[in-house]
Amino acid sequence: SGLDPAQPYFQGTPTEVRLDKSDADFVDIIHTDSAPTIPNLGFGIAPAIGHIDFYPNGGEQMPGCGKNPVSQIVDLDGIWEGTRDFVACNHLRSYKYYSDSIIYPNGFLGYPCASYDLFQSGTCFPCPQQGCPNMGHYADKYKGKITQDFLKLYLNTGEARDFPLWRYKVTVTLSGKSKVKGYVNVALYGSDGNTKQYQITKGTLKPDNTYTAYIDAEVNVGKVTKVKFLWNNNWINPTFPKLGASTITVESGQN
């Protein structure tokens, strides 16, 4: 397992010099700091070099690493941890994701995709038939399923522990008499937990229109038992418009 393998002195070198998939039966890589070293101070290698390569949050800038220096140094984990994070926060996220992955065997699903932008837009959702590999400790469960030379995998993580997020596709068809301006929020309830509210759309809300959003939830809800639908006007409307949902469809990424 390569935890953000180093970029300076290694990127672009022959395979004898750097970590490469010829080094073991199964090489999995987590890229967390792969922006160019100059000028971005990226410490991690960018190209796919393993059997499977994970690019959480796109692989360059990790959520929670853009905090201001004071709050980052006086971190929840203490001043020593905070100081290291200030210097190399993105780079060090790789081992934090890995250690979290031990506790969450079904977390950190990596979606095979050509790019992070395509993943964000929902193009590579849900997982293919053979499933998605889990980034981190349980990546080797995928060993027998690799069919291509290089496999790039994308996923999003939280800003702080606990890091895993579970991706859902939520589609809402509205019902009502007239269009209004505002926003629609949805929360998922399930056999294993509930999510907070996520915004599905905002702006003009038209009855009979369908709106789709991809949400990265902080819990794996398991079997969905209930969906909470909330909408809000942007301003006080004297006509008291009514709006509902005729259907809400929830699709979970892993299956």
UniProtKB/TrEMBL annotation:
Domain PLAT per the UniProt entry, residue ranges: 166-255
An example Gene Ontology biological process: lipid catabolic process
Annotated Gene Ontology cellular component terms: extracellular space; neuron projection; zymogen granule membrane
Catalytic reactions of this protein: 1,2,3-tripropanoylglycerol + H2O = dipropanoylglycerol + propanoate + H(+); di-(9Z)-octadecenoylglycerol + H2O = (9Z-octadecenoyl)-glycerol + (9Z)-octadecenoate + H(+); (9Z-octadecenoyl)-glycerol + H2O = glycerol + (9Z)-octadecenoate + H(+); 1,2-didodecanoyl-3-O-[alpha-D-galactosyl-(1->6)-beta-D-galactosyl]-sn-glycerol + H2O = dodecanoyl-3-O-[alpha-D-galactosyl-(1->6)-beta-D-galactosyl]-sn-glycerol + dodecanoate + H(+)
Alphabetized GO MF terms: galactolipase activity; lipoprotein lipase activity
Xref: PROSITE patterns: PLAT
Cell compartments where the protein resides: Cell projection, Neuron projection; Secreted; Zymogen granule membrane
This protein's record includes keyword Transmembrane: no
Gene3D superfamilies assigned: alpha/beta hydrolase (3.40.50.1820), PLAT/LH2 domain (2.60.60.20)
Membrane topology according to the record: Peripheral membrane protein
Keyword match Glycosyltransferase: no
Superkingdom of the source species: Eukaryota
Pathway stated in the Swiss-Prot or TrEMBL entry: Glycolipid metabolism; Glycerolipid metabolism; triacylglycerol degradation
Family: Belongs to the AB hydrolase superfamily. Lipase family.
Protein name (Swiss-Prot/TrEMBL): Pancreatic lipase-related protein 2
